[in-house]
Amino acid sequence: MSSLGPSGLRRLALVAIVVGFVVAVGAGTAAAEPEIEDFEFDTDDELAGAIAEYEVGGDVANVSENQNLVFELDVTEWTESENGEFIDIVDTGDFDDADASGGVITFTKTAGGEDVSAVATISLRNPTIDEATATLTVHSGEGTSEPATETVEFGEIAASFADDPVDSIGPDDETTLSVEADGSPAEHVVVSSPGLDGNQLESIFSVDRDHEDIGVETDGDRLLINRPADAGEQPPVPEIEASFTHVGAANYQFVISVDRSREETVIPLEVEEPEIDVEFDEDLYEVPAGDLVTMDVSLDGLDETYLLVGADGTTAEEGVNDFLDIVKFDGGELTVNTRLLGTDAPADAVYITDGTVHSYLHGDETEFDDVDFREDEEGEGDEIAASLDEYRAELDMTEQPRPLQPDRYRIVAGAEGTVITRDDEIPDFDYPLGRSNLLLNQPEPGEVTTHVAPQASANSVEETGSLNELLDELTERETVAKGDRLVFEIEATGIYGNLFAFGDGSEPPFEEGVHPRALGSVVDAHEGIIVNVSETNSDPNTAPTEIDFNEPADGDAYVLPAHEDEELSEIDRFYVVLDTRDSGPFTRSVRHGDEFDVEFGYESPSDARHRFVDVPLGVRPPAYSIDPDLVDENPNTEHYPYYRTSETGETDIAPFRIEDPSAEYDRTTVADELLVHNGTEVTIEGTTNVAPGTETHIQLIAHNRTNPTRITIDEVEIDEDGSFSATEDLSTLRVGEDVEAEFYANQRLADKRAADVVDDLDDPSEFIVTDVGNPVTMTEGDNDTRVSATIENTGNAADRKPIEFVFEDAQIAETNRTVEPDEPAPFNFDVPDGLEAGTYNYTVVTPDDEASGQVVVEPPEPEEVIAAGGDDPVDDPAEPVDDNLPADALGELVGALTSLVGARHAVGAAVIVGGAYVLGG
After folding, report:
1. Residues 100 and 69 both lie in one domain
2. Which of 674, 800, 867, 905 has the fewest CB atoms within 10 Å distance of its CB?
3. What is the rounded average pLDDT of the residues 134-152?
4. CA neighbor of 412 nearest in space, from 301, 295, 316, 320
5. How many distinct structural domains can be found in the chain?
6. NCBIfam families annotated for this entry (predicted)?
């Protein structure tokens, strides 16, 4: 007899029970068969292939009290598992006992009355077919019930990617994986793919997710994506984000299943190499350190790019290697304030754009959760830092000791934020798309030049919106008429980042200039920048008048970097505009004759350099907080950040002078009266100190009329040298009448004087010699004889002209005299002394006329002669002069006479009159 195993024994026992039922029935009256009124076979997990728990049992009627019942559950359609190991009795529940053999499970129960209710819990693996049946039969000593059957439909696993294909990099490298497993609250989804290991799968499915409880973990070459604990009746997991940045372009097969299930689905996905690109408009952006530079970054196939700035690995200047920033940017124009790079300034003050920009270094760390730092193994190396600060420490960087110094700095564009450290220890992007460079040059100051412009508010450029319009109005001068605008042109680089930082932050920078307090703040920032305007000729006991740029309103002073028609990186000068009306920007009202110097430059103490305050790694230094030790050591000297220890700086000084508005005319009388002609087209010319372009007019007013006549000349043009001209019809004026001339600049009276109206501008006066006292008689030997003359001005205007007295063709005297019209003027001229008897010619000459006369010199009365040897005089002819004088004595005589007369030329010929040489001819 063969031995029976446990299964055989159970069947034998079942047969014995059945036989017992039959014997009992045969011995008594016929018994009724049990009836199954409710077959319970329920589960919450009907996923194909899943190991599920079922509630098994039901209600049975028509049984006798204390009868032994056998519940037989047949699940042989579920027997695809080996040896029936898929069955497990978890809890016998209301049954007395339970047993499983093959595809049949038996439960025993002792009836307590006509109705029996009993439920147990079993665990079994669901088939991988679409559906299966479970049959329940109840046996009692009184018979066997009709079978009750339940059909179970098994749920399937469905999975798909939202996008196919996807890119291996760029904005289209992400998609979502959706997994549905009907009827299974599985704890996690299992993902695998031929050719991808667990780490690669983790990089694909480890992006941010909506559910914080979702996590991933590797299991060999599989990835387990956990289901949220609060998922309830949801599918196993919600949609899962996936990024294919770190896998190459290929066709992949992803095998998706859920835990506790043999069922799986395979979904394909194509990963492509995208057509994306980043281009910089320049290979090299060159700008003085501390200024602003604008770069245009175009994105092709990208919504945004990452920029890695700095970390060049050069050591040309101390502190250069200490700068590294990562910027996220959506493309277009990006203006960088190089003065603030690496400081605690916020990102939007350092990087200015009309779009969106974020900086890792300048406070936007939360925007860079997708940035990681790895060793170079095509982005799959070990993560070496969790943040930018940790990465900088990994590279042995320290905080910047001073603003970014002159040197070259890399700019690398990347498709995504994975930063790798190359074999040469230089940071780079895992997927770089474009490169450029930022070259910071040494800034330097230049010359200061003073200009004037027509009267207006200092910030009037805000109304025109154009710096070029101001430049067109400028005239270089060292004097300014009070009320006009005074403009300093200051050549300089390395200051515009400061001006923008302290300005109003307009976009784009300097579109309309900056408030003067921005310049005042720069001066006060221990930045080594000198802007000083101070009076040089103040009274000994009076403080000089100055300008404090922190005080004026922008209508009194304004600062305009010269940016129009230029790149920001090419700005090399700025203009300070001052309104000189009233006190304007000055500490007191300026006055006529005030003289000033304007000084601009950079300075730094010898053997010292600008240094930020010390801060720990990871804390950005304040942009304008200098090391207090430097201030203590050099309290009277500022520190320009870009000077080396061997440089002490340089400045330039330009003088200017304040004057009251004035005008002078080219044609005036000797009394400074304006000389005008009463013609139909009369031009008045002159010079003025008001600025060219000023609204100017001249008024001529004839007051002596019953109804005064006023003529206004509006078209007055002022040239750069201050000369002006105006043409008008003045025919209504009368020759000789009283007229007043007024010169107005911007409705300010700059000059007021009388005007003389004449009929001939080229000859407004005529000096006529009306009397020369002819003849003039004198005795030889007389001195101090004079010729009297009268000159009349027959013109219309008083004038001053030269009057000459010519004696024997030699100019003896010349005088300049003013002669009024209709007022004869007497003149007296001295006759030369020492004239011998004779007749001499003379002429009185004016530029317009001349008249001649004669001087008659009579011999003296004859003297009485005493005879020799006697006392009585006798009449005796004059003894003749020895005519045998030596030649040199004769020459001396002629020379003496010539000197006496004075000559514009030699006086005629020398003749002998009465035995002596005299002037004649």
Report:
1. yes
2. 905
3. 92
4. 295
5. 7
6. halo_surf_dom
Q: Tell me how far apart the alpha carbons of residues 530 and 770 are, in angstroms, rounded to a whole number.
A: 71
What is the DSSP secondary-structure string of 252-270? EEEEEEETT---EEEEEEE
Instruction: State the Cα–Cα distance between residues 447 and 450, nearest whole angstrom.
Output: 10
Q: How far apart are the first and last CA of the chain?
A: 192
Please check whether residue 298 is in contact with residue 278, taking contact to mean a CB–CB distance below 8 angstroms: yes
Q: Is 877 found in the same domain as 800?
A: no
| Domain assignment of residue 395, yes or no | yes
Same domain, 434 and 575: no
> Is 51 buried (19+), middle (13-18) or exposed (0-12) by CB count in 10 A?
middle
Task: Label residue 672 left, alpha or beta by phi (over 0 means left) and psi (-120 to 50 means alpha).
Answer: left
List own/partner pairs for 534-542 with CB under 8 A and 24 or more apart. 534/596, 534/597, 534/599, 535/594, 535/595, 535/596, 536/595, 536/596, 536/597, 536/655, 537/593, 537/594, 537/595
Whether residues 467 and 537 share a domain: the answer is: yes
Task: Tell me what pLDDT residue 899 has.
Answer: 44
Read off the pLDDT of residues 868-900 as tens digits, 9 standing for 90 and up: 555 555 544 444 444 444 444 444 444 444 444
What does the alpha-carbon distance between residue 368 and residue 362 come to, in Å, rounded to a whole number?
Answer: 12
Helix (H, G, I), strand (E, B) or coil at 654: strand
Total H helices, total E strands in the chain: 10, 63
β-bridge partners, 52? 124
Using CA atoms in the order 898, 899, 902, 905, what is the torsion angle rounded to 10 degrees? 50
Q: How many whole angstroms separate alpha carbon 588 and alpha carbon 580?
A: 11
Domain that holds residue 688: 663-758
Quickly list H helices, 140-290.
198-204
At which residue do the structure tokens 């590279």 appear? Answer: 395
Which residues does 551 contact at the CB level (< 8 Å), separation at least 6? Answer: 520, 585
Give the residue among 70, 72, 100 at the shortest CA–CA distance from 84: 100
Please confirm whether the linkage preceding 508 is cis (ω < 30° from 0). yes
Cβ pair 174, 164 in contact under 8 A: no
Q: Is the alpha carbon torsion for 798, 799, 800, 801 positive or negative?
A: negative
Distance (Å, rounded) from C-alpha 5 to C-alpha 463? 108
Asked if residue 800 and residue 696 are part of one domain, the reply reads no
Query: Which two tokens mark 803?
Result: 């009057």
Query: Six-digit token pair at 415?
Result: 């498709």
What was the pLDDT predicted at 30?
43
Query: Distance between alpha carbon 683 and the CA centroid of its chain, in Å?
Result: 50
